[in-house]
Design brief:
With about 270 residues, the protein is α+β, with helices and mostly antiparallel strands. It folds into two domains: about 170 residues, no CATH class; about 90 residues, no CATH class. The chain is built from twelve helices and eight strands. It has a three-stranded antiparallel β-sheet with strand order 1-4-3. Strands 6-8-7 form a three-stranded mixed β-sheet, with helices on one face. The chain starts with a helix and ends with a helix. The C terminus is likely disordered.
Length: about 270
C-alpha cells in the first residue's frame, strides 16, 4: 500500500474531526451530560455494596431519580442497599444563618436500582458507530494479537466498552461489529501510544483524545459511519481542536500503521474516491 494514500485519508479525516470539535458540543452530548449528572458517583464502600448485590449493575440511581429521567422501576424489583449520609447544619451555623458548615450525623440505609431494573425512555447516549466492518475486524484482531497483546471479552468491564491494560485488551461482549471494531482500534491506540515510559504520564484528556482520534481515522477509512460519536467522546474528556492538532503526529503514526496492515490498495482507493 502506498503511504501517500494512507496519509491522504488520515489528513482528510483529521481535518473533519478538527472542524467538528471547533463547532462545540452537540445537542446529544449536552443531553447525555445532563442525564449523567442525575446518576450520582458513589463512595468506594457503596460501590462495593452495589457490586456484591448486583455484579452486573451499570447505571444506578434512586427511585425518584429514575422517574426524573423518564424511567420507572419495574414492579417487584428488589432494591440495592447502600448507605446514605445524614447531614445537618450545626447549631452554631444555624444561628449565623450560614451554609458554610455541615455536620455528619451518621448513615442510613436506602435503596437504589440499576438501569436493568427500570423501563421507559432510553438514556441519552453520545452516539454510536454504524456499518459493516466485514473482513477488517478479523484483520484488526490479527494485528492486535500479532503485537503480543492478549485480547479477551468480559461482561465485568461494563459500562466500559473496552479496557487497555498494557499487553491486554478487554472488550465488552455483545456489541455490534462496528462498535467492536471502533472500540478495538481505540484500545489498540492506547497500547501503541501510551505504554511507553515517556508517554505514560500524559493526562487522561490527552490520552483519550489521541486514542479516539485514531479510532475516527481508521473507522472513516474503512467506510464506517461515526456520526458524532468520536467528537462527543473526545469532548466528554474535555478534548478540543487545539489539543488534537498538538497531538497530530502521535495520531498519524498508529493510524497509518493500522491502515497499512488491515487495508489493501483497492480498499484505500475506494475510500479516497467517496
Amino acid at each position: 500500500m502506498k503511504s501517500e494514500e494512507v496519509n491522504h485519508l488520515t489528513m482528510r479525516a483529521i481535518e473533519e474531526l478538527t472542524a467538528a470539535l471547533s463547532a462545540g458540543r452537540t445537542e446529544e452530548l449536552t443531553c447525555y451530560l445532563a442525564a449523567m449528572s442525575r446518576l450520582h458517583r458513589y463512595s468506594l464502600h457503596n460501590v462495593m455494596l452495589i457490586a456484591l448485590q448486583k455484579p452486573t449493575a451499570t447505571h444506578v440511581a434512586g427511585f425518584h431519580a429514575w422517574n426524573k429521567l423518564g424511567r420507572h422501576v419495574r414492579k417487584g424489583e428488589k432494591g440495592i442497599f447502600i448507605l446514605a449520609p445524614m447531614i445537618r447544619k450545626s447549631e452554631a451555623v444555624k444561628a449565623e444563618n450560614s451554609d458554610a458548615e455541615r455536620v455528619l450525623l451518621g448513615f442510613r440505609g436506602c435503596a437504589v436500582f440499576d438501569y436493568s431494573q427500570t423501563e421507559g425512555r432510553n438514556l441519552p447516549s453520545i452516539g454510536s458507530v454504524d456499518g459493516d466492518p466485514t473482513h477488517y475486524l478479523e484483520r484488526l484482531t490479527q494485528f492486535v494479537t500479532g503485537q503480543g497483546v492478549v485480547l479477551r471479552y468480559a461482561e465485568e468491564i461494563a459500562p466500559a466498552r473496552g479496557v487497555s491494560e498494557g499487553g491486554k485488551i478487554t472488550l465488552l461482549p455483545g456489541m455490534s461489529p462496528a462498535e467492536t471494531f471502533a472500540t478495538l482500534v481505540h484500545e489498540c491506540a492506547h497500547e501503541m501510544l501510551h505504554r511507553q515510559e515517556n508517554r505514560a504520564e500524559l493526562s487522561k484528556r490527552q490520552k483519550e483524545t489521541e486514542a479516539e482520534a485514531v479510532a475516527f481515522v481508521v473507522c472513516r477509512a474503512v467506510g464506517l459511519e461515526t456520526g458524532n460519536a468520536c467528537q462527543n467522546y473526545i469532548q466528554l474528556y474535555r478534548g478540543d481542536a487545539a489539543l488534537l492538532m498538538e497531538s497530530l503526529e502521535s495520531v498519524l503514526l498508529p493510524a497509518s500503521r493500522i491502515l497499512d496492515t488491515i487495508c489493501d490498495p483497492t480498499d484505500v482507493a475506494r475510500s479516497r474516491d467517496k
